[in-house]
Specification:
- The chain is mainly α.
- It has one domain.
- The protein is built from five helices and two strands.
- The protein has helices at about 15-35, 40-45, 45-60, 65-85, 105-135, and strands spanning about 95, 100.
- A hairpin with a 2-residue loop joins strand 1 (about 95) and strand 2 (about 100).
- The protein is flat and about 60 Å long.
- Keywords: Membrane, Transmembrane, Transmembrane helix.
């Protein structure tokens, strides 16, 4: 049950439709990857990533949404790179020590994780403190 002081987050219908289309493209990309349908998987990278970037841009004024949507952009980037590395056969090629081509996907994965850690460890506590001060 919502509390009287709960903020309402509403998404305009065109934005919601874009988010739903984003999910469709993302699923098609991953189905292409899973089934090794290279044309489908590769062709869905650009629309999936572009829509994620547009969603991130549109929600940039809400810090929580910005952090989570940036993490999604980096997640899709990492996921797409990993798929490409498998499709092109350099996923098992050693690039440094025991790290292989697919391990380079850790860079965008960890970037997205770092953004979320910053949000939850630094930004959100600041927002909570500011809200507490405002209610005094």
């Amino acid at each position: 049950m919502p509390q009287p002081d709960d903020q309402i987050y509403s998404i305009p219908a065109p934005y919601r439709r874009m988010e739903n289309m984003h999910i469709l493209f993302w699923l098609l990309k991953d189905i292409g990857w899973c089934m090794i349908w290279k044309p489908l998987g590769l062709s869905m990278i650009v629309p999936t990533l572009v829509i994620a970037i547009v969603i991130t841009w549109r929600t940039r004024d809400i810090k929580a949404e910005l952090a989570h949507n940036l993490a999604i952009v980096f997640w899709i980037s990492a996921n797409s790179y990993w798929m490409i590395s498998e499709f092109l056969g350099f996923d098992t090629v050693r690039v440094w020590g025991n790290l292989t081509g697919k391990h380079l996907a850790l860079i965008p994965f960890l970037t997205g994780l770092s953004i979320l850690l910053y949000y939850y460890i630094v930004q959100k506590p600041r927002e909570n403190r500011a809200a507490q001060v405002a209610t005094l």
